Hints:
Number of helices of chain B: 1
Order of helices and strands of chain B: EEHEEEEE
Radius of gyration of chain B: 14 Å
Helix content of chain A: 25-40%
Strand order of the largest sheet of chain B: 2-1-5-3-4
Structural class of chain B: mainly beta
Shape of chain A: globular
CATH topology of chain B: Ubiquitin-like (UB roll)
Number of helices of chain A: 14
CATH class of chain B: Alpha Beta
Oligomer: heterodimer
Helix content of chain B: under 10%
Shape of chain B: globular
Number of strands of chain A: 21
Number of strands of chain B: 7
Number of domains of chain B: 1
Largest sheet of chain A: 7 strands, mixed
Amino acid sequence: xxxxxxxxxxxxxxxxxxxxxxxxxxxxxxxxxxxxxxxxxxxxxxxxxxxxxxxxxxxxxxxxxxxxxxxxxxxxxxxxxxxxxxxxxxxxxxxxxxxxxxxxxxxxxxxxxxxxxxxxxxxxxxxxxxxxxxxxxxxxxxxxxxxxxxxxxxxxxxxxxxxxxxxxxxxxxxxxxxxxxxxxxxxxxxxxxxxxxxxxxxxxxxxxxxxxxxxxxxxxxxxxxxxxxxxxxxxxxxxxxxxxxxxxxxxxxxxxxxxxxxxxxxxxxxxxxxxxxxxxxxxxxxxxxxxxxxxxxxxxxxxxxxxxxxxxxxxxxxxxxxxxxxxxxxxxxxxxxxxxxxxxxxxxxxxxxxxxxxxxxxxxxxxxxxxxxxxxxxxxxxxxxxxxxxxxxxxxxxxxxxxxxxxxxxxxxxxxxxxxxxxxxxxxxxxxxxxxxxxxxxxxxxxxxxxxxxxxxxxxxxxxxxxxxxxxxxxxxxxxxxxxxxxxxxxxxxxxxxxxxxxxxxxxxxxxxxxxxxxxxxxxxxxxxxxxxxxxxxxxxxxxxxxxxxxxxxxxxxxxxxx
Amino acid sequence: xxxxxxxxxxxxxxxxxxxxxxxxxxxxxxxxxxxxxxxxxxxxxxxxxxxxxxxxxxxxxxxxxxxxxxxxxxxxxxxxxxxxxxxxxxxxxxxxxxxxxxxxxxxxxxxx
Lengths: 563, 112
């Protein structure tokens, strides 16, 4: 057993996407010592860096806008399930964060000196700022990373995978991590802990997130006693790239093309079809993510899909000059992949993209457990049953800043920190007998297949029950003791630690989906079509004696924002 | 007969203790070398260590290594149906197999 390393800080921030970095900056500039950690490298992984274009915010820089309009659109997209205080915070404080990012030099696209806003589906007006070309996520990550570097009081460490939070007398006191590049356990003592670990896209075979987002934040919070909410609502992005195969390109890259140029979505017979699902697009881009996903999958089911099982997206009506003006160097990268958009359509299909569910929190980002805060996609509830385009980066920034602020206030009010009780987790990491089989990478792929095939956008009782029994089989094969050894970059051990969390979260998603006997937003039950008024409830997940318990809580009444 | 790519990969915990091992990977046009490395973990050996986060988007910049002697990203290098040599970065401290210490020193764990 390698002796555990010890660390001590005021505020521990887990995850270094936009939410984690903004939280670290805010806590540090309020006078706290901050430790910012990530299981990969600082500021490179997670979902932020993968964002292609839109950030929704009522700046009113080009045309008049007000946060209440953005709020109204967010509530409508959420199909009646949004946590209104979280949705309101996102919309109301979005402009301040976007403006601060501007002063930090993120480089929002401008025209005549004013920040430009694109129109995105579900919004009542152009409201989405961006960085050209397809650079929004990398620019946001890079900007925050350089501010983090310049801010006094933030220590940073990559390669730290959190195994579990520590608790004493009902209060979260820090965490135990596994240091991936040395194999050593690390006990981190903190007065406040912020979980900013993003979502669960890695549970699905085809996904648009980073490989390090397997719902670990949900699992560690659940085990620490914090409830989760809305876990059945996984957002699929309808037009993820499908074919021909590309390298060095993000699978959600076609969204910006649609924002700027419209484009035509066609079935395998080269016919437009979205009008048959209630949304005639006529060359515009107005179909929301839940409806778009449903429409494409239904066409495929009716044997009207494209050759690889999706739909065609065509920009053949656009001139080479128009494409070049809208996308500059991206056109050359496509040419290297043998794609000429003036001559051919590409194929797209739904891809796991974002999780509406997450850890239940109030508008201060506090969970039910003292000392434990959340930020960004890890937070559940702001987006209800379906997220509006562009709200993810905004929520990362706003919720991150808010969590940093709340954590700093907690630290100031505390005299001494409580020493963490890390015995149980250290014991878990003590397994010394090397075990490399069954193959953890293969188990991970099997879990992704189960989720994609049976807990995807279109669900039935039969599929969900089959998924739950297959998840049980993987859980049994995983056992209670870690595979691999405590050695540098032992991926078998890292996979085991990941699978422990992924299996728990997969089961939570499938169980919540089985219990919700209606169809709403991103949760479509083919055996139970239609939204039911009695299901205007949020499902709340808790862990009791190691078992998942799901209860219902009435959703907040829709109070439509002032027009 | 379907084509194969042969990846000759450095395996070992440091530069003095290790050797090259060869793996045959089924070749499909359009794959990246990173796709090939991921295939090896699932079908041959889950202990093969390499860094990546964003899979194939070239956003995280974690999968830099030496492929046929050239310093390049595994996610933007096409897998080809021939022998390809894959090594860790020569100018960085080796952690294991293809993983090197690429984070700036101030972004690594320091003991108090």
